[in-house]
Amino acid sequence: MIRVENLVKTYGSVHALDGLSLHVEPGVVYGFLGPNGAGKTTTLRILSGLARPDRGQAWIMDQPVALRQSAGQGVAARLMVGVLPEEPAFYAWMTPRELLRDLVAPLYGMEPAEAAKRTNLLLEQVGLSGSADRRIGGFSRGMRQRLGLAQALVHRPKILLLDEPVSALDPAGRKEVLELIDDLRQQATVLLSTHILADVERVCDMIGIINQGRMIIESEREALLERYAVPLIEVESDDALENWAEQARSLPGVESVTLANHTARLQVKDAATIQAELLASLLRQGLHLQRFEIVRPSLEDVFLRLTNSTKPTD
Amino acid sequence: MFPTLLKKEMREQRRTHRLLIFVVAFALIGLMSPLIARYTPLLLRSIPDVPAELAAIIPDPTLKDAVDQYIKNFSQLGLLLVIVLTMGIIAQEKERGTAGMLFTKPVRRSAFVLAKWLASMGSLLAGLLLAAVGCLFYTWILFEPLPIGGFLALNALLAVFLGFFMTLALTGSALARSQPMAAGYAFALVVVALILGALPWLGEYMPGRLMAWGWGLVMGGAASAWPALIVSLGLTGLALLAACLYLEKEEL
C-alpha cells in the first residue's frame, strides 16, 4: 500500500532522512513514531508530493510518489491520498463549507450535489457543523485540525497521511478524532505520525519507530511490546523509599530504579522471579506498602529505550 | 480542475477586496485625470500673489493635457498599484501553507499560477474599464468628446503594459518563499524592465513604448509600435512560463 525504500534527504548539513525504508500493508493504522527532528514530517512531505528525496523512492498503491518533475507525474498517487499536515493552513476568508464543497470536492471531480452532501457529513463527523458558515480566519487551532481532517477525507482516500492529527485537541476532541481514525481502518490505510504514544497504543496496529532519519524498528504493536518492553515493578509506600531503593539497586536482576515521591519504579530482568525477593526486602525494612504491582510495559518505555539506544555517543 | 481554481481565485479577489481596490483606485485615476488637467492651471492662476507674467504663460488646459494626465497617472500610480496588489499573491500562499494544502491534491501547479494570473487580470481589466468610462465621461464634460476607437485602443495598450508588469510581480512572487522576498523580487524585476525600457536602442521594443503609441492613437501623430506590442506580449508569456516552471519543481 505504502512503500518507501532508502529515502535520503539532506537539508544543508542536516540529514533529515538517512536511508529510511518502511512498508505499510492495506487496512492498517500505522503509527509513525520518533522524537522531534527524527524525520517523520519530512517523510510525510515526500509521500505527499511536497518534497523530493535526494535518493530513494516511495510508492503509494504501486504508483510512484514524486514532486512533479514532468507534467502529471505523481498526480495518480495524489488522487488516492488524503493529507493532514501538522499545522493545517486554510484561506482565512473562506468558510469550512466553501472550502470542502466549492474547492476540495471539485478538485477530485465530485459533482455539486455529492459535494454538498459529503461536506455536510464530514462537518458533522468532525464536529464542525455549527461553524460550517463561519470564516475560518476566526478558528482555533483545534478547529483547524478538525477541518484539516475533514478536507483530507473528502474524496474517500485509500491512504491517509496524518501528521500529528490530535496534537491541538483537548482530551474530548482527541478521543473523538481517534475514534474516527479507528473507524477509518475499514476504508483506508492510515499512516499516523505522532509523538503522543498513548494515541498510538490506542489506535495503531503497526508501529514504526524512527530516529535520526533511520527506521529503528517496524513491528506489530503487541509484538513490539512483547519483544522490547522491559518488565517493570512499581512500589508505592507511605514511608520514604530512598534507603530501600538504594538497596534494591544492588540486587541481581534489577536493572534500574527511579524514584518519584513515594513511588519507586524498577526495571527488572524477570519480574516473576525477583518479586519475592523485593517483597521480602521491603518487609525487612518495615515499610508500609500501599501498592506492589508488576506493570504492563508501555509503548513509551519501549520508545525511550529504543530511541535512547540509538542516540549518538558524542 | 482549472475552473475550480479560477473560481476560487475570483472569489478571493472579491473577499480580500483586491477587486474593490482595483476598481475604486482605477476609477479614481480615470475620473481624476481630466479633472486635474482641467483645474490645475486654474488653481495655479488663482494662487494669491502669482505674478501676472507667470499667470499669463500658464497654458489653457486642452484635451491633450487630459490624455497626458491619464497616461501619466496609469504609468506611475496604476503601475505601482498593480505591483503592490500582485507581488504577494503566490508567496503569501507558500508562506501561510495554503499552497502546500492545495498541492497535496491533484492540482497542476501551473494551473494554480494561471488561475491567479487570470483572476488578477480580470480585476485589472474591470478597473481599467471603469477608469476608461470615467475618463471618457469627464473629458466630454470638461473638454470635448474623446475619439472612442482611439481611446479604447489606448486602454487596450494600457492593459498590455500593466499586464506585463503585473506578470513580473507575479513571477517574483512565485520565486519567493516569503512576502518581503516577493516584494524585493517584484520590484527588482520591474526596475530592470524599466531600465531596459529607458535604453534608446532597446526602448523601442519595450512595453513603455506602448504608451506613446496609445497617445498617438487618441491624439494622432505617433507611429505605431507593433514590435513593442509583440515583445510585451512575448515577455509576459515568458514570465508566466518561468513562474509555472519554477513552481512545478519547487519543494514546499
Summarize the structure.
The complex is a heterodimer of chains A (314) and B (252). Chain A has 314 residues and is of the alpha/beta class.
Give a written overview of the molecule.
- The complex is a heterodimer of chains A (314) and B (252).
- By secondary structure, chain A is of the alpha/beta class.
- Chain A contains eleven helices and 14 strands.
- Chain A has helices at residues 40-47, 75-79, 96-107, 112-125, 141-153, 171-184, 197-203, 221-228, 242-249, 271-284, 299-309, and strands at residues 2-11, 14-24, 29-33, 55-60, 63-64, 81-84, 159-163, 189-194, 206-211, 214-220, 232-237, 254-260, 263-268, 289-295.
- In chain A, strands 6-7-8-3-9-10 form a six-stranded mixed sheet, sandwiched between helices.
- In chain A, helix 4 (112-125) packs across helix 5 (141-153).
- With 252 residues, chain B is mostly helical.
- Helix content of chain B is 82%, strand content 0%.
- Chain B has helices at 2-15, 18-46, 52-57, 63-86, 91-96, 98-103, 109-142, 148-175, 179-198, 200-203, 209-219, 226-249.
